[in-house]
Amino acid sequence: MQLSTPPRVKVLEAVGAVAGDRVRVLGESEAEVRASEGDRTYRVFLDTARGLADSDDNGTRFRNYIGYPILAFMMIKGLLPYDEEIGKALKDVKWRSINELFKNYRLVERYIKEELKRAGISPDRVDSYIASVMEALSDMTLQRPEHP
Question: Which of 38, 86, 102, 126 is the least crowded, having the fewest Cβ atoms under 10 Å away?
Fold first, then answer.
């Protein structure tokens, strides 16, 4: 089954995971990504040569989009743009708490952009960065591997 593009805010969640040193590469095609609140670890499989990607995060598993753990691993591998300054500003964000508070990804994105603005990063820069990641993703087709 083909994975769809993620909600925009997942790009910001992924860049924060990379900056927070929460991505542990296990091999060429495998990684673990620790959740922002430290209580979960997601397994990631990525084989771009075969167009395959999978993770056990909720977005990938239940909503069939490229979840933030996959995005973070792709950033580590240099397959997607990474912005160090935005990442550093987001490395300690507790994403699940914010997602549960707002229950709407657009509202979460608006909140995070306000936080970034307070840290001196303009909303236009954030939008440009998200657009660059989404553009890179649009050139890829990833599907979940068949599981027996």
Answer: 38
